[in-house]
Amino acid sequence: MTLLSPTPRSTVGASPAALAARATPRSRRVGVPYTFLAPALILFTLFLAAPIGYAAYLSLRRVRVTGLGLGAKSRVEQWAGLSNYARSLSDPEFLPSVWRVAAYGMIVVPTMLGVALLMALLLDAGRSRVGGFARISIFLPYAVPAVVASLLWGFLYLPRVSPITDLLAAMSIPAPEMLSSSWVLWAVANIAVWGGTGFNMIVLYTALRAIPTEIKEAARIDGASDIAVAWRIKIPILLPSLVMTFVFSLIATLQVFAEPMTLRPLSNTISTTWTPLMKVYRDAFTRNDIYSAAATSVVLAVATFVLSYGFLKLVGRRAFNQED
Amino acid sequence: MNRKLAPLVATLTALAMVSAAGCSGSDDDPGSGTTGGKVELTYWSWAPNMDKVAAAWNAANPDIQVTVNKQDGGDPAVTKLLTAIKAGSGAPDIMQAEYQKIPTLVSADAIADIATEVGSLKDKFPESAWNGVTLGSEAVYGVPQDSGPLLFYYRADVFDRLKITPPKTWDEYAEAARKIRRANPKQHLGTFSATDPGWFAGLAQQAGASWWGVNGQSWTVAIDDEATRKVAGYWGGLVQEGVIDNKPMYTPEWNAALNDGTQVGWVSAVWGPGVLEGNAKDTKGKWKVAPLPQWDAARPATGNWGGSATSVTTQSKHKKQAAKFIAWLNSDPAALKLLVSDVNVYPSAKEATSTALTSPPAFFANQADFYQIAEEASKIANPFTYGPNVNVTYSAYSDAFAKAAEARNAAAFTAALSTMQKTTVDDMKNVGFTVTG
Amino acid sequence: MSLVTATVPAPVEATRRPRRQRHSAAATVLLLLGAAYCLLPVLWVLVASSKSAAELFSTFTFAPSTHLWDNVVQLSGYRDGLFWRWMGNTALYAGVGAFASTLISAMAGFALAKYTFPGKNLIFNLILAGVLVPGVILAIPQYLLLAKVEMTNTYWAVLLPSMISPYGIYLCRIFAAAAVPGEILESARVDGAGDWRTFGQVALPMMRTGLVTVFLFQFVAIWNNFMLPYIMLGDDRLYPITVGLNGLLNQGASQPAMYTSVVTGALLSIVPLVLLFLSLQRYWQVDLAAGAVKA
Predict the structure, then answer these.
(1) Strand, coil or helix: B240
(2) Ramachandran class of C225: left when φ > 0, alpha when ψ lies in -120 to 50, beta otherwise
(3) C270 and A244: CB-CB below 8 Å?
(4) Per residue in B192-211, pLDDT tens?
(5) Is the Cβ pair C236, B2 closer than 8 Å?
(6) Does residue B115 contact residue B138 with C-beta atoms inside 8 Å?
(7) Are A134 and A40 within one domain?
(8) How many structural domains comprise chain A?
(9) Which of C57, C150, C153 is closest, CB to CB, to B259?
(10) A161/B253 CB distance under 8 A
(11) Interface contact C126, partner A, CB < 8 A
(12) Domain assignment of residue A320, yes or no
């Protein structure tokens, strides 16, 4: 971490070589950017890097007890090699939870971004008087913590207390039991879509507003329809924003936790290892086995990194260079 | 707030008090290791109003001041305690610990042996409760606070209308369940809850199971034994038949069923009235309690669901004072009265029946003999040993029985037991416990 | 190995949209559908919190009742008004945490966008990788480390870890790159302003609009973070609202879940956030497009 630690503020004039290499006078004082970065780097080191490193260390450790394990000295921590990883990956519940999250992501990410894009385009087209109201309403769920949101939707899902069931029953349509095994994935996905659409819509809408009006107007004067303008002009300009909302949604998806965790006691269909992160929670908090939990965490973090990095590589970086 | 400063502040306060010469003169324990000054203890408990009981103690004991930190329930509190133990700081002095968590806490070296500090309290508690805090050894890992003998609650109005008498055996219970279903397909006599492993463990205990055991220097695990298989098969059969519901308890849906009278009975513990009152206040006067249905009416038995002890943590620097407080809390008649009236628990201490449990809980005002029935039940609780990884077993229960209940398949219920057994044994072996059998 | 180098398009100069287009019924219907979907559960809380405990589980879900005030009184009475302390704590954690986080992110983002120095990309990518690690995983190691300095179960235990936000730094870098033209910094320097003065008096005001966004993000993130306070705090007088409400809901088998209080508490906890959004969101909307000076 020495590289990251703030260096003392150097006085005027760095090496002449640096000055020559960088014609910008910004680099006159080498220490300045580091002092700007210092608080962030210190906090980052203390509360992100160190815990992550600690988790990685723990993933290679284990506790061994001897005999009955009841005496004060019967418990020792020791090196475990990769055995925690082996156990974590070979857990019969692990792969199903990964596939479940993959399926969940395939529902959530396209739906959420699709709806967010549609709403953002509708708002931007300015063809309705309800725009302001809709924008605030759709953004509102973002203000509701996931734990609370899941509680609310839980009420709306349970047949006996749900108004949706009542309404459908009044129309004599058999209501789906949302927390039954065939629907539960959709039930959880719905909460995520509900909570996340507004945020993404705002990001996209902000990007749309930044498109110079002349461009939009020019296309319209050429006789292009709203849909054509959206498709040929707005969406291509939006691409960088879409890519980034996609990546952040993807990361959030892989970390799905609060929603199924809150719904779990309400049904028989969500197991304690329903998602990989729930397995981490179960191992660390319920089973008091922080070592396996750490191993699974490392695997998850690496997988998230590979996926998001891979995706960014795939779509290319040509569109993403704003500064420098 | 800063624990580093706390001893310093305490010492300074003590010095000030001594020099003020107005020494409180209370019967402070001699030779307690501290200078006889004021001691501050923190106490983690999830029982409501425990701070009021502590306030009564604080008023009478200015030298040992207890602060209650209200916790969210047994599982989160244990999680936090274990994390604090691992970290080496942050644990309270005193901890409410459910009986099933005591072996886990002892194994993690989280709660201390207070045999010498607490003295002879053994005679004040029923043997089963005392065993829960000694784990059958010479050590004492806490003082029993409350017990949760299983009872059977039922809607007397519905039973009367259908001319059903409270079932004395599980066969009669099944018959009653069928009758109720036939009379009104929306009603259930009960539900099999896959989210409540403690409830199922109590039912297994009644049938004679003891999921763990100590055999010399090794553990035995008997979750998939004959007694538990009998219980699982019985409930699986009722669920498969459709006469018992398969949904978890403590959901909004379950609450609704209690309120609208579609949940006609509840196999629960002695603390049940508080839950019924909180969830379905308007059904007051309609419920009655009866002893738990039996497998063998000639040899009545019951199990426990819930119940806890009060322990001193290994991080406490004032074990002596802490032990003094918890002995008072759980065996002094004045404290027992408060535990019943304010905290709403069913104390383990034998004396409670004559001093504190004289009138039925308000929600069961219509049943004067409520606590007689409870006392009979608490006497016939079967012995049951918990292991050092109860949480592993309990989460395996939730997963395996949730699948079985969802499938409404009796065979899956008994199969779930072998999953629980295997998960438990694998985990113990992996951690290094000696396991036989 | 640049993980990510940009997003959220640069704010461009203000242009009020001409409002002379035809209105479309289809657009209105679609927008209203979206709004209805998002408002439904909120409406439910509103109705549900007006019901007594018995009504909550017996009357038709959207039939309002008259017990809202009773429920608020009951909730306020829980452990001598603990609920309001939770609200205050939440405001403290989210408010102070988000403010500090925004300032720290702004400084870091400014440095990353406007300076060239060795290790810049490495630092940026390291910080960004922090986004990949979920809070559930961090909570226990963070606890173990804070316990070493005996800071668990204090306000600091929640505040300090909340002050670092990789996402905030990432956004600030973009905002700084887009909103603060190099020429203006140069002229400030020529006028003899030091780096800190330039940052405080020139760059910060220019980034103001973006910083509101970052503040909002971080405010919500702290508000939402359940695991950190859940594990760090043993004293319920320090709880934020989410942990407190969760406790009312899961009191263990022998206690009834306090549904009416939880639902009422959920409603009351959303209100201030909604107000904050209503004010800041507009400001943010307008300003993100209007406030920036094109480079």
Answers:
(1) helix
(2) beta
(3) no
(4) 999 999 999 999 999 999 99
(5) no
(6) yes
(7) no
(8) 2
(9) C57
(10) yes
(11) yes
(12) no
